[in-house]
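Example 3.2
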Amino acid sequence: MLKYPPIIGSSHGLFYLYGGYRKGCGAVIWNPSVRKAFLVVVPFVGDGIYESVVGFGICRDTIDPQIIQISKIETWSWIESRSCMSWQVEVFTLCSRALRSSYSSNLPRKSIHFGSYRVVIDGVLYCLATDRITNDRGYRIDNYNLIISIDMTTEELREINLPPILLHCFGDLFLSELRESLL
């Protein structure tokens, strides 16, 4: 089973746990009311060059649990030198029991860095992120906060700009939800 899995998210009475599993990563979708759990082996991408961010939610149309894995080149020196795509979005649905590429071609810019705060509200995954703006030589000249939303039904990614007072607020910015509202 998973080693010390934290609860990453919950939706519609289901819990989503994620952690190390043998030589990869695993996700568990757990329904405590019926005492059943389903293990999903998720390919491990965190090799120092690539980093993965995972989220969990329920599709509004099909009520099917989904895991979204967003992988990107994390090391700045590799971003421009890699010939492959800098972003890859994959979706696992419980009905298909398979990980597939997202239908959306709307991917974030290379400079977007996902944080650790994620919230699902009404079938939309909201992720706190930072846009790291650099100059031509790769030196960071500015950072600002934003929210990336991922619709679990259409699989579309969108940027949500924050008010000016929150743009440069680092270390004290969190995402949470209360009664289906984003806080």
